[in-house]
């Protein structure tokens, strides 16, 4: 079967002349030759633009020009190009940006590999006026939750043209965020979405562009809010979109889930320790803080306690006002995994929250906000932002790949934004820490629960990978659900080589397995 033709579509309006020449050179220099380039001039007032376009079309038969009769903006001009496209694939290229010579070749190779591929995106970097490259953005695999908070796909985007036409192309009223809106709508129809690694697209920083100044197009931010809200409404996600912490970032506030029966499972041995200068019975204060933070109407706390747990701690748990406490004695040798599994067996909730005993709720509505995304059937687990006692980041998602298991942004300061605002947006992640994780009961048991072959460490990573890779469900980290985690107060946190070997032997080197392509969130 022959490889597909690519239709590059570009809206043109007064591009910087030198930058436009670089754009032209990057298209003409593509190693993949079966392409057409459709440029729609949106009544550019600069006198050189239209003659240059005509000259280009006269010398290169694969170039076609649309001369618009009136200025209509980027949506109208992009649709003019789209209407003339004949290729099976459509690629988006701005009039001042630059493609790597193998950009089309690599994207087409992905389409050749996957017959059901409908949307592919690559990594990108920034290009200065002088042509210098910097700030490469190596993107995650397909991450729909992240996309609702940030148009991380951006450049280079290549679509199956039939799907773009099915969803109606670019929509009026979304100027500045028209590509974000398009990707959101295409993603709802796409059979397969693939991240093609490599910075194939150089986003030019010219005065007045969003690449140079994210404040340059405030109207685009509001258009992005409407695009995200539109998807939430189409998918039936009960949530409200609004502006995020900076232009180009968004906030999605889900309607809290106050009624789904929840069991909070807490393994403990009743340790007491000093936190912020005061001695506390850790598990007692953990439960008290969660009770104080929630308005959920159906919560039980399943406390799985080791036999040596002090009787006064158990008495204090029973006495917590407003808490439905179920005490389950654990008489075997310590195993975090076994204790969690025992707790799940005694739990009655439709949703299970596994929680360490050395925690304190910081944000309001921890339970109802943590479980809200679990209404969506493709979400398998959720986890919160966890802070150390000094407010530095303890958990912002776990990274698994190439034989490494690490905490993202470990010990980052609370004011840090993270790469492209990652610490202030919800997003899919490789794995979630078992210190606080929520999942539907059936997902937990379908995944086989916590592996008791990993009694201390990495049982959470193993469970996450079973949910994500075996069950095909998403793991979502929630930036605005926040708890303190006084880590290592209650036990030794040392990791052993055999535990690392167990995980790597079971799950392998993910990046090598996928051979450079990715179709899920890792």
Describe it for me?
- The chain has 522 residues and is an alpha/beta fold.
- Strands 1, 2, 3, 4, 5, 6, 7, 8 and 9 form a nine-stranded mixed beta sheet that branches. Strands 16-15-12-17-24 form a five-stranded mixed beta sheet, sandwiched between helices. Strands 18, 19, 20, 23 and 25 form a five-stranded mixed beta sheet that branches.
- Strand 1 (6-12), helix 1 and strand 2 (35-41) form a beta-alpha-beta unit.
- Helix 7 (178-189) runs parallel beside helix 8 (218-235).
- It has 16 helices and 25 strands.
- The chain has two domains: 6-213, Spore Coat Polysaccharide Biosynthesis Protein SpsA, Chain A, CATH 3.90.550; 262-512, Spore Coat Polysaccharide Biosynthesis Protein SpsA, Chain A.
- GO terms for molecular function: glycosyltransferase activity.
- InterPro entries: Glyco_trans_2-like, Nucleotide-diphossugar_trans.
- Keywords: Transferase.
- Residues 7-167, 263-444 form the Glycosyltransferase 2-like domain.
- This is GT2 family glycosyltransferase.
What's a concise summary of this model?
By secondary structure, the protein is an alpha/beta fold. The protein is built from 16 helices and 25 strands.
CATH superfamily of the largest domain: Spore Coat Polysaccharide Biosynthesis Protein SpsA, Chain A
CATH second-level architecture of the largest domain: Alpha-Beta Complex
* Percent of residues in helices: 25-40%
CATH class of the largest domain, please? Answer: Alpha Beta
Please give the number of β-strands. 25
Shape label: elongated
Overall pLDDT metric: 93
């Amino acid at each position: 079967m022959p490889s597909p033709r690519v239709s590059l579509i570009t809206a043109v309006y007064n591009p910087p002349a030198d930058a436009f020449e670089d754009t032209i050179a990057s298209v003409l220099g593509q190693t993949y030759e079966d392409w057409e380039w459709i440029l729609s001039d949106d009544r550019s007032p600069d006198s050189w633009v239209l003659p240059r376009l005509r000259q280009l079309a006269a010398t290169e038969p694969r170039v076609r020009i649309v001369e618009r009769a009136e200025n209509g903006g980027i949506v109208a001009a992009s649709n003019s190009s789209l209407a003339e496209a004949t290729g099976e694939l459509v690629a988006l290229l701005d009039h001042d940006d630059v493609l790597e010579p193998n950009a089309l070749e690599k994207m087409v190779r992905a389409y050749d590999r996957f017959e059901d591929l409908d949307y592919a995106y690559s990594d990108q970097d920034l290009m200065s006026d002088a042509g210098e490259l910097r700030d490469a953005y190596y993107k995650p695999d397909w991450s729909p939750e992240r996309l609702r908070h940030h148009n991380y796909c951006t450049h280079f985007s290549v679509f199956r043209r039939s799907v773009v036409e099915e969803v109606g192309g670019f929509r009026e009223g979304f100027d500045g965020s028209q590509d974000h809106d398009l990707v959101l709508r295409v993603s709802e129809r796409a059979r397969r979405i693939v991240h093609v690694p490599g910075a194939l697209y150089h986003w030019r920083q010219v005065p007045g562009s969003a690449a140079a100044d994210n404040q340059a197009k405030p109207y685009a931010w509001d258009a992005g809010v409407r695009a995200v809200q539109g998807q939430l409404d189409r998918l039936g996600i009960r949530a409200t979109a609004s502006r995020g912490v900076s232009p180009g970032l968004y906030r999605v506030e889900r309607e809290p889930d106050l009624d789904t029966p929840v069991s909070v499972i807490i393994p403990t041995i009743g340790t007491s320790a000093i936190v912020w200068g005061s001695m506390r019975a850790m598990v007692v204060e953990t439960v008290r803080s969660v009770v104080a933070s929630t308005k959920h109407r159906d919560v039980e706390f399943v406390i799985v306690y080791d036999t040596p747990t002090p009787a006064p701690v158990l008495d204090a748990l029973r006495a917590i006002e407003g808490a439905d406490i179920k005490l389950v004695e654990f008489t075997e040798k310590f195993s975090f995994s076994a204790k969690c599994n025992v707790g799940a067996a005694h739990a009655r909730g439709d949703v299970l929250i596994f929680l360490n005993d050395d925690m304190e709720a910081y944000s309001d509505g921890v339970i109802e906000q943590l479980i809200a995304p679990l209404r969506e059937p493709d979400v398998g687990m959720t986890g919160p932002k966890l802070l150390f006692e000094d407010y530095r980041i303890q958990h912002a998602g776990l990274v698994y790949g190439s034989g490494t298991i690490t905490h993202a942004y470990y010990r980052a300061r609370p004011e840090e934004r993270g790469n492209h605002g990652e610490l202030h947006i919800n997003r899919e992640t490789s794995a979630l820490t078992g210190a606080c994780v929520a999942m539907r009961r059936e997902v937990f048991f379908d995944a086989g629960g916590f592996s008791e072959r990993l009694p201390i460490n990495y049982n959470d990573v193993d469970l996450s990978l079973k949910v994500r890779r075996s069950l095909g469900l998403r793991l979502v980290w929630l930036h605005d659900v926040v708890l303190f985690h006084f880590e290592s107060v209650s036990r030794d946190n040392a990791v052993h080589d055999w535990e690392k070997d167990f995980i790597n032997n079971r799950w392998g080197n993910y990046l090598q397995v996928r051979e450079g392509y990715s179709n899920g969130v890792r």
